[in-house]
Amino acid sequence: MSKLLEILKIESQEIATSFAKASIEGEGTPQEVSDRREDIIHNFLEKFFPFPFRIVKGNIIDSFGNRSNSIDCIVINPSHPYTLDGERGKPSIIFADGVDYAIEVKPDLSNNNEIERGLKQVQSVKKLIRIRTGFERSEEGKECVKRIPTFIFADKTYADIRTLISNITTFYVSNKVPKQEQFDMIVINNRTIILNIGKKMKLQLDDFEGIVYTEAGENTLALFLFYMNMIPKSEPEISDNILKLYLQKENLQGLGMRYYADLNEKLNAIDNS
User: Fold this and answer.
1) According to DSSP H, which parts of the chain are helical?
2) Residue 29 falls within a domain, yes or no?
3) Pairing between strand 185-188 and 150-154?
């Protein structure tokens, strides 16, 4: 276990270094910088969700004809039809019912325009409805599993994490975004995990409703993988994912959850308004 944590700490450092390198290599061409950073996260995910999982970029469609915006990193379940274009290696179509996770890459969440763009990307995915779902433990959770787990991965944000959560809250309240169309997790590399918890969300904690965060520091990537593997995939697994055996929350030290009661009160009022 300690060896895995050490490897993930190094991975975290390498991602930060690679993001900085991408800025230099793609200087003057924002799309080139963006593509390079997406490739970095693609490569990381491929290590921990190897073939027959596939990591792709594109639009997701559901069986009702709804389509998401183009998402940077999509983890496709092994049961998804092999719809990759042989020449380009890109998917010709991505079905919501075969998507396990959708991850939007936003390197710096200290710009409100970038925050809003990321939240809108998440919402476009969350509007999709899956018919085929994994197992869910509660009656209330049956509707929840119809939505694709959606995350934002960033390398930086404000010095005060409250500023980020406050800006997110303002966006959701101003636009009356319902709980089921909100993000599940935001990862700030080498620093913080932010979770959106509730009965209508992928991650649940007793009867708590709202956004919580933990200053995970160098264990951030480990905690990211831990929570990803807590969420049921689009198809029930025959056996536990190997990572579940080696990533146990009790081994991730100093990870107490914190929250801002006043911000959560505003968020929780959206669905009741």
Assistant:
1) 2-25, 30-48, 112-126, 141-144, 161-174, 220-228, 242-246, 261-268
2) yes
3) parallel
Q: Is residue 220 within 8 Å of residue 193, measured between CB atoms? A: yes
| Tens-digit pLDDT profile for residues 44-63 | 999 999 989 999 999 999 99
pLDDT digits (tens, 9 = 90+) for 176-206: 999 999 999 999 999 999 999 988 777 777 7
The verdict on residue 273 lying in a domain is no
Total domains in the fold of the chain? 1
Sheet holding 99-105, edge to edge: 54-58, 71-76, 99-105, 150-154, 185-188, 192-197, 210-214
Rg, C-alpha atoms of the chain: 18
Which residues fall within 8 angstroms of residue 207, CB to CB, at 6 or more apart? 199
Q: Which residues pair with 213 in a beta bridge?
A: 194, 258
Question: What is the token pair recorded at 78?
Answer: 């092994």
Residue 224, sorted as left (phi over 0), alpha (psi -120 to 50) or beta, turns out to be: alpha
Any domain includes 185: yes
- In the block, tokens 């085929």 appear at 132
